[in-house]
Amino acid sequence: MAAIVFLHAFGSSGRAWQPQILQLGDRHRALAPDLPGHGATPGPFSLERAVASVRELIQDEPEPVHLVAISGSVIVALLTALAEPDRVAGLILSGGTARGRRGDAVQRVMMRLMPEGMIVNILKGMYSGGKAEHLDQAVQDLRRAGKATVLTGLAELGRLDLSDRLGEIKAPTLVLNGAKDKANLSHAEEIAGGIAGATLRVVPEAGHIWNLEQPDLFTRTVVEFVG
Hints:
- With 227 residues, the chain is α/β, with parallel strands linked by helices.
- Helix content is 46%, strand content 13%.
- Helix 3 (73-83) links the parallel strand 3 (65-70) and strand 4 (88-94).
- Its EC number is 3.1.1.24.
């Protein structure tokens, strides 16, 4: 049975995939590691260290794995697929980008000037999927990761451009984007257009971290694609 590896957003942790892990049960081997600087994994965070940690994880699997990534970790999944094409059986990429976005620099400057508590208050609603039952966990994860980790992730993402390398990815790919997550729709279209055979699906009534907003639909989407 090929493993499904779930990669969390920058500032979150593997706990954000708990609904999917629980729903998959014994049907699939599901893994949700904490990236460096997040959850229980020591920092500091860098894209290089994040990709290295995922590559190390999947080397131990007897079969190629499916990578499921959301938000900033989409870039980690793309870099892993480029570095380990024979170890990646499929990609499910939601709400991510293959390169820095217009306005990223302004966003980083604003966040750098904000106290960490203000950043947590701004992001906690999105990182909890708008669900009260996930709010405390989102706050804990954001505080544990800290302002520096989130800023580092955004800064490294802003300097990277994989748009010219998307054509190198051969793994079957499903690109997802919440209909309410309008800021990332053009980036989802770019990723889907750049990877041969990729499918783009816009999810009605879904926002950015929609695996927590609509956990049943997200899990079902993963299972259907993997199957």
